[in-house]
Design goal:
Length: 311
């Protein structure tokens, strides 16, 4: 059985990159198609009408192998763990607009996938005199809103909740590998058609790519989010896909590697969807989890949209 360390080298402890992929080495065949949203054997479902922020967090964490993790970024960014939840919003980012929507909905708990304060660990010492940060934290405090980042934990769920959510929205579950869902095998499909399908299903206006649109693609390496150039390049070298579809890149890393690989004669293309577009369905997955496991709480997914526009 292939291990995550063997397939995706370069793991660095509990860092962000470790949780980008859920390599389901012990689950068995058919993981993407047959495993339910989350395991029902994970624990007794609480049936009370009221939950605190911590109780909701703990219920999810209990269902993830090895959690809670040391040195995780999955901490409260605002609010108190003992706050009684009036409603939950799931979102890719807890933007100011998302916070305002939560206030409008009467929700006091936001479960975000990515940072709230513009850096991976949500350190705020460097922002103490910044008026944007101060406005945002004051808004959260004024309305007693708790924000929990669920990044490492949801990525370590088996199957990875983000990857599962994205594959479902793309309608690509049937092409995903049984043991490693991030490796997909398609009937012969052109790069142009793969891109058009992804744009339609993920509501993307434009993507960046390297390759010949007419190229036939069968093996696809799917790396949503921001895996980092080292992991992306090492994975391409090991798996030898026809195309890697990813969330985001450092332009001076993976793109230049793919350009050189093509110049060398390799049949490799690159498609960059954008980080938000490639992982937003993970927050939809989180919404469905909440509806299943805490059905007495009103929960809503708020799509924060792309921060960038195209001309």
């Amino acid at each position: 059985m292939i291990s995550e360390k063997h397939l995706f080298p370069g793991n660095d402890g509990q860092s962000r990159r470790r949780f980008i992929y859920n390599v389901t080495t012990a689950v068995g065949a058919g993981v993407v198609l047959s495993v339910p949203m989350v395991s029902r054997a994970a624990g007794v479902i609480k049936t009370s009408d009221q939950y605190t922020v911590k109780q909701v967090m703990d219920l999810f964490i209990k269902q993830v192998p090895g959690a809670p993790f040391p040195n995780t970024v999955d901490t409260l960014k605002a609010g108190r763990p003992d706050t009684v939840v009036t409603g939950i919003v799931t979102a890719m980012f807890a933007t100011i607009d998302v916070i305002r929507k939560a206030i409008e909905l009467g929700a006091n708990f936001i479960i975000a996938h990515e940072p709230t304060f513009y850096n991976h660990v949500d350190g705020t010492d460097w922002l103490k005199n910044d008026d944007v940060y101060q406005y945002k934290i004051d808004l959260l405090n004024k309305h007693n809103i708790a924000v929990w980042r669920n990044h490492d934990t949801i990525h370590t769920l088996k199957p990875d909740g983000v990857t599962k959510g994205v594959l479902e929205q793309l309608e690509w579950q049937q092409y995903a590998g049984h043991d490693i869902p991030n490796i997909l095998t398609f009937p012969a499909t052109s790069l142009k058609d793969l891109i058009a399908h992804a744009k339609e299903k993920l509501h993307i206006e434009m993507v960046r790519y390297i390759g010949d649109p007419a190229q036939g693609c069968t093996k696809v390496l799917f790396m949503p989010g921001a895996a980092g150039g080292t992991r992306q390049i090492q994975s391409i070298g090991k798996i030898k896909p026809d195309v890697m579809i990813c969330g985001e890149i450092q332009e001076w890393e993976t793109a230049e590697y793919v350009r050189d690989a093509r110049a060398k004669g390799d049949n490799i293309s690159l498609v960059v969807l954008g980080h938000i577009a490639s992982e937003e369905p993970g927050s939809e997955f989180m919404l469905q989890w909440l509806k299943q496991y805490v059905p007495t709480i009103n929960a809503t997914h708020v799509n924060c949209g792309n921060s960038l526009s195209f001309l």
